[in-house]
Amino acid sequence: MEWNAPMLWWLATGGLVAAELATGTFYLLMLALGCAAGALAAHAGLGSTGQVATAALLGVAFTAGWHFKRARSPRSAPAESNHDVNIDIGETLHVQSWAEDGSARVPYRGAAWTVRFAGPGTPAPGEHVIVGVQGNHLRVAAAARH
């Protein structure tokens, strides 16, 4: 088996993909795309300088493009208050009474839960909306009145 330039580029591409799978760093995939471009340049007959230049330019361009795309996209809410992560966020429950420390025990989903008040002002009995989950405590705020 001959170790030619395209094979080396494809091995580098595979190594970067494997490193991305092991670390979860998506930027390594962008660099792998640059190496794939270097392999294609080698298949096209470009010299070693052209291959390296192609790989470097496209690798940097893909990485920069991904970085700027991520910078423009809106940030998701933290997991503890993100409805996409926890289906309880946004659900309502009824609090009968509050303890002095701003906590209460309420029935929710067939079990007794400890809730902590996370809204503005002082907690009052009534309907509340779950705004977050911290460990086994629900964070709630007063529900909007219609």
What is the 3D form? rod-shaped
From the alpha carbons, calculate the radius of gyration and give it in angstroms.
Answer: 27 Å
Write down how many β-strands occur, each being a DSSP E stretch of 2 or more residues.
Answer: 5
**Quick check: average pLDDT?**
89
Order of helices and strands: HHHEEEEE
Any low-confidence stretches, pLDDT <50, length ≥5? Answer: none
What's the layout of helices and strands?
Blueprint: H1 5-23, H2 27-43, H3 48-72, E1 92-95, E2 103-108, E3 111-117, E4 126-134, E5 137-142
Parallel strand pairs: 3-5
Antiparallel strand pairs: 1-4, 2-3, 4-5
Helix pairs in contact: 1-2, 2-3
Description:
There is one protein chain. It contains 3 helices and 5 strands, in the order αααβββββ. The chain has 146 residues and is of the alpha+beta class. The chain has 2 domains: 5-72, no CATH class; 79-142, OB fold (Dihydrolipoamide Acetyltransferase, E2P), CATH 2.40.50.140. Strands 1-4-5-3-2 form a 5-stranded mixed sheet, with no helix packed on it. A hairpin with a 2-residue loop joins strand 4 and strand 5 (137-142). The protein is rod-shaped and about 75 Å long. The N and C termini lie far apart (76 Å). The relative contact order is 0.10. The model has no long low-confidence stretch (mean pLDDT 89).
